Protein 1
Amino acid sequence: MNKNNDSRENRWYLSLMAPRSRGDKYAWLDPSAAYINAESFHDMMDDLLEPFSPDDIDVVAGFDAAGFVLGAGMATKLGKGFLSIRKGGKIPVDYDVVPMSNYSGQTQQMEMRKPAFAPGTRVLLVDQWIETGGTMTAGIQLVERQQGIVTGISAVCIEDNNVTKDMYNRYKMSSCVVSGSDIQAQCNRQALDSFESYRAEDGFPEIGSNPVSNCDSDD
């Protein structure tokens, strides 16, 4: 584990993300490997939330399925509710739908319950990873169709391309991977240097450890 005194600035937890070990149809890495360790997961939440104020957000929306984990965690820290944006065919009530192409080039549909909120609601959109931007673009359209306001976009990594460049120009963005950093370049080429020394054991939860807390004890 590459943790040291400057670990938060270096985003130490990114080295816990696992390289793909199955076929090419799967994503090139598994960021959720870094969620297993409590300190890693909570540091990620804090870094993703750093540019946002609870006063500017009414609800957090996360994408099916990995965005549910991050989005619900961030909503909890902010003291806000959570709205799920689902893959097609999952919502049993009235819904809006937007077709999109995912990172593998497959056509999918993203759906959101209708109505989901009142006009003018400020929504923080959260996903695990933004590669091509197709999923996030669909989420933006779903929110804005219901006259919501996208107050920010957050993901573990936002890869550089024309779509994400436009997002940076239009919205407040947050990522665990610092834009312009060497790790950003590694993500853009979809190969992290840390893969060479990756060990799943480095991210295992500590047995019998005390819960991670953002609150100081009053005792």
Note: Residues 85 and 112 are 5 Å apart (CA to CA).
Protein 2
Amino acid sequence: MGRKKINGHYQQISGDFKNGVYQGGLGLIPLKDGWYEGGLNGFLTPHGQGERTYTSGHTLAGEFVNGIYTGGKGVIKFKDGTYQGDLNDSLQPHGEGISRDKNGNSFRGEFTNGVPSGSGFLKRADGSTFSGNFYGEKYMGGDGHIKYSDGSIYDGKVNAYFKPHGYGRTYAGSVMNPTAYVSGTYKNGAFIGGNGNKKYPDGFEYTGILDVNGQPDGKGVFERSENSLYDSKSITLFGVFKGRKAIGDASLTYKFRDNVYEFVGPVNSKFNPNGYGKERVNGGEWKYVTLKGSDFNK
């Protein structure tokens, strides 16, 4: 009569025999709900380092003592997801591991008796990510990368409720080349204004005081540079601003190739000289002039 194959495996053992009695060693043992491969005692029971595989998809790798798993690494399938990593003797996540739920969310980090506890990295199905410390499954805050329904993204500090809290940046486009952004201080998810930075879709970048809506609201500077293989030009405007409107006189510097034009006085909404002020070219003498929207900013 041939050997019986169980769950795709035949029993295989190697080791020491004494008077025809197996004393233990290594083997592959088919089981009703899976199979085991690794160290064995004389009763063909898992003993020593081995791996227990279940037909359900569970795997347990680590130390066994007389058939009892004492901890190690494994893959555990739950009703709503899976876990892969370190386990304790109660088959709970314990140590380093990664869990994934059926909705596409995942957590990679430290676990204690089945729950995230310690440093970790949480990734949501929408692509948002959070790193920091967890205690008893509760996020304690840290760094976040949040994707919003309008396509904008926030990168920066977040609180325990996964909201922007501290210094951060909300932007559109890619992280390396955003088309627009506002950076500064947030509190419980809201931008609170103060010193910050703002980039506009037309390429201008502002550094200075911002209001709670992320708009220029005080002393600051607007800058834009355009460089190519053959040309380079830039514009810099210092002043006091309400939105993109300069309040009172501003200081304008326009550079084109090796030429530098400077103007101090009122400017229009396109940041062009617009009224009575003084100008100079390439570091020469200042001259008082009256200009009407001369279009240096093209």
Note: Residues 1-68 form one domain.
